[in-house]
């Protein structure tokens, strides 16, 4: 197979891996109806990197597949942020109600055997308090009669979720448009060109590279990777490794040196994933690496 064909094939596979990177986590969160075990900082940092990269790619007139990759990645970031909003809000609602119900059930009478076959019921103070409150509650007939309140319409949870999603999408699109306008405004000067490269390439790559660090810290503290989809690090390592391979093959094909600046972010990502495995092994043995916020 020609070298150019290998480069294109590996490049497209890497783009697919990065585009679908967050979807295994989205499916896992939905199945568990929880975002526990996933760092919100990771999602926010990666979302920010996508917001910086997309206008940079538009500024450079990059190919449509690359733009679609980052557009899908940004959309997946929005979906994850919506899951954080939905499931963590639900903790105070449905899940909170379930916990309260379980707590009430656990407040049961404690039976103590005394002399002979005589049993005496000793109630937990919280149970006694609940019973006293129930017996002292006023009956409905004791309330003064009043005309029924007019029916009020409140937004449904779905409407809340829809509004949150639209707000995040508008914020993302607006940020992309604002940055693209800024890039076009300063492109004529030398310092402006440097600024564009630093923001669209340097800072965006840095956010993408170190984005997994909060997740690594979280797993090290909890000594558990429960809640993190296996597909996320698998796609991350695959896409990063193929990207490094593409950069090396492109340098070989053109007879130039390898672009170290392009390789470093992907190498950091692979290193974080290896560190995650080491951290988990250390956590299981009580030797969690000393990372803390």
| End-to-end Cα distance | 48 Å
- Given as residue ranges, the uncertain stretches (5+ residues, pLDDT < 50) are 90-121, 151-156, 283-293
Whole-number radius of gyration? 28 Å
Give the overall shape: globular
What's the SSE pattern? HHHHHEEHHHHHH
Mean pLDDT: 77
Secondary-structure-based class equals mainly alpha
Strand content: under 5%
Report strand order across the widest sheet. 1-2
The biggest beta sheet is recorded as: 2 strands, antiparallel
Estimate the helix proportion, in percent: over 70%
Question: How many strands appear in the DSSP assignment?
Answer: 2
Q: Give the helix tally.
A: 11
Protein architecture, described:
This protein has helices at 3-19, 23-32, 40-59, 64-91, 94-106, 125-136, 157-186, 190-210, 213-222, 231-254, 260-284, and strands spanning 110-113, 119-122. The model is unreliable at 90-121, 151-156 and 283-293 (pLDDT under 50). It contains eleven helices and two strands; from the N terminus they run αααααββαααααα.
């Amino acid at each position: 197979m020609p070298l150019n064909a290998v480069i294109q094939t590996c490049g497209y596979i890497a783009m697919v891996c990065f585009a679908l990177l967050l979807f295994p986590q989205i499916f896992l969160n939905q199945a568990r109806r929880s975002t526990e075990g996933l760092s919100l900082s990771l999602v926010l940092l990666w979302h920010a990197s996508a917001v910086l990269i997309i206008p940079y790619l538009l500024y450079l007139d990059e190919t449509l597949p690359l733009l679609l990759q980052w557009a899908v990645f940004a959309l997946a970031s929005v979906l994850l942020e919506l899951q954080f909003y939905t499931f963590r809000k639900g903790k105070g609602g449905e899940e909170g109600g379930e916990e309260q119900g379980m707590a009430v059930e656990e407040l049961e009478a404690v039976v103590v055997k005394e002399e002979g076959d005589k049993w005496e019921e000793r109630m937990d103070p919280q149970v006694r308090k609940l019973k006293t409150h129930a017996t002292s509650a006023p009956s409905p007939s004791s309330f003064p009669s009043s005309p029924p309140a007019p029916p009020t319409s409140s937004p449904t949870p779905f409407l809340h979720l829809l509004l949150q999603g639209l707000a995040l999408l508008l914020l993302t699109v607006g940020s992309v448009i604002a940055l693209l306008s800024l890039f076009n405004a300063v492109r004529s000067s030398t310092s402006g060109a440097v600024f564009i490269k630093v923001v669209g390439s340097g800072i965006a790559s840095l956010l993408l590279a170190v984005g997994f660090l909060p997740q690594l810290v979280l797993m090290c503290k909890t000594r558990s990777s429960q809640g993190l989809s296996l597909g996320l690090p698998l796609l991350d390592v695959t896409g990063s490794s193929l990207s490094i391979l593409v950069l090396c093959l492109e340098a070989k094909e053109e007879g130039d040196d390898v672009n170290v600046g392009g390789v470093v972010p992907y190498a950091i990502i692979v290193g974080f994933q290896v560190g995650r495995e080491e951290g988990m092994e250390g956590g299981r043995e009580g030797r969690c690496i000393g990372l803390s916020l």
